[in-house]
Amino acid sequence: MRIAHISDIHLHLDSHNTMVEEFYVLLKKVLQKNPDHIAITGDISDNAQNKDLEICRLILDDLGLLKPHKTSVVIGNHDIYGGVFHAEEIFNFPEKCRSRDFDSGISNFNFHFRELFTECLYVSENNSYPYAKLINDTLIIGLNSNIPYSQIQNPFASNGLINALQREEMLQILQDFSRYSKHIIILVHHHFNRIKSGSSRILQTVWNNIEKQTMKLRKKKVLFNIFNEFKVDLVLHGHLHEQGNYVRKGIKFLNSGGSLKNNDHLLNFNIIDLTKNGIAIEQHSIPFDKSKFHSDKHITEYRRMAEQVDARIAV
Ligand SMILES: [Fe+2]
């Protein structure tokens, strides 16, 4: 069983950047590795806009990946609340978050990838998380680690928690289905490792540091206990835009963070091979040379279609 893992694509058509083209190239590179399944662990959109989720959907469909046995997605905080793009927006961000409805944000995200939530072993009635799929002999469980905006508890909309209801449902899934699988993989947006913050002078960098300090996943201990009890093989996540793997409390974690949005302008993805002998992980980073890439006609067409869908949903 081979899984490809990407995360934090941060598509943003309004920025007129080459992220869509990069995403297309990234997926082509991923497909060259012949994965059985692709996991995308959140922040597909940069600013929670329908056009960005829709263009991801169109590209997945174009490559034959908009199928539940081919691809799984979980939601990231940017898919609900977006982010800050200019220093002056820092002051408007709380208002922007207050004006967004958390539950509708989740169902909107899920709607764009609706096919991927079908043919599951289990899909929660509570906005589809957790869900569980059995792909070959691997049990894949998708979680929503986002929490509603709150001035005190979640002032930058970037903190996380797997709430009690999701934990209960995840336990039930593990009790019911773990015996039928050889491996268990968890997909979640938020990270479990500690992060370092850099020094800063300008406002945007101050924001980045504040955000880093307010990106915490709460109540990790109870999750470590559940993952250990059921011998979870690997937790795939993003959120922090750093590619890497680490072990905490005996559990293996793998970050594909910043598959597109990273400082080095690299296309990052992980390839995970699950065999009876254990897990092998390859981390790939491929430079994207803008000057050599010319946008395909059909990508231009997808941009147009995504804008149309956005306009239609907005009406
Ligand atoms: Fe994130």
Q: What is the second-level CATH architecture?
A: 4-Layer Sandwich
User: What is the name of the CATH superfamily?
Assistant: Metallo-dependent phosphatases
Low-confidence stretches: none
Order of helices and strands: EHEHEHHHEEEEHEHEHEEEEEH
| Main sheet makeup | 7 strands, mixed
Average pLDDT number: 90
- Taking all Cα atoms into account, the compactness measure Rg is 18 Å
Question: Percent helix among the residues?
Answer: 25-40%
What separation lies between the terminal Cα atoms?
Answer: 44 Å
User: What overall geometry do the principal axes of the alpha carbons give?
Assistant: globular
Any ligands, ions or cofactors bound here, and which? fe (ii) ion
**Tally of discrete structural domains:** 1
List the helices and strands and how they pair.
Elements lengths: L1 E5 L12 H13 L5 E5 L8 H13 L8 E4 L3 H4 L11 H6 L3 H11 L9 E2 L7 E5 L2 E5 L17 E2 L2 H14 L5 E5 L15 H11 L3 E2 L1 H10 L4 E4 L5 E6 L2 E6 L9 E10 L2 E10 L9 H18 L1
Parallel strand pairs: 1-2, 2-3, 6-8, 7-9, 8-10, 10-12
Antiparallel strand pairs: 1-13, 4-5, 5-6, 11-12, 13-14
Fe (ii) ion binds next to loops.
